[in-house]
Design goal:
By secondary structure, this protein is of the alpha+beta class. It is 26% helix and 12% strand. It has 3 helices and 4 strands. It starts with 6 loop residues before the first strand and ends in a 34-residue tail after the last helix.
């Protein structure tokens, strides 16, 4: 897989991009890449570090830069989630009301309305 277009840090073997940690060597076809959602999965990180040919110092630097860039989301408390499910705590609901479209051309002839053009 090609490197993501947003590149935040580049080392000798690893890069921190908008997709997470990616190996710079494109012959690997993204086999060793780690996505943003799995940056905090220690088992996956240790398995990638243990692969033969991995520059451990460069990998550790990429991991620290990526974890600073993409902080871990706090895990929800299971007790609070259970109380919300039982209805003891009301979950906040966001009510998004879409405003009705207003036509400003009512009662006027279209040929007399100002035209807009894209200038090159």
């Amino acid at each position: 897989m090609a490197l993501h277009r947003d590149i935040f840090w580049v080392g000798r073997q690893w890069a921190v991009t908008g997709a997470g940690i990616q190996a710079i060597d494109q012959r690997l076809r993204g086999v060793l890449d780690i996505g943003i959602a799995r940056l905090w999965d220690d088992d996956l990180v240790q398995s990638r570090r243990a692969k033969p040919g991995v520059n451990a110092a460069d990998f550790d630097k990429a991991l620290s830069v990526a974890r600073e860039r993409f902080p871990q989301e706090p895990t929800p408390d299971p007790f609070v989630a259970q109380l919300k499910a039982l209805g003891v705590i009301e979950a906040s609901t966001v009510n998004q009301v879409v405003p009705a479209m207003q036509l400003r051309a009512e009662g006027r002839l279209a040929r007399f309305l100002p035209q807009w053009r894209v200038r090159r």
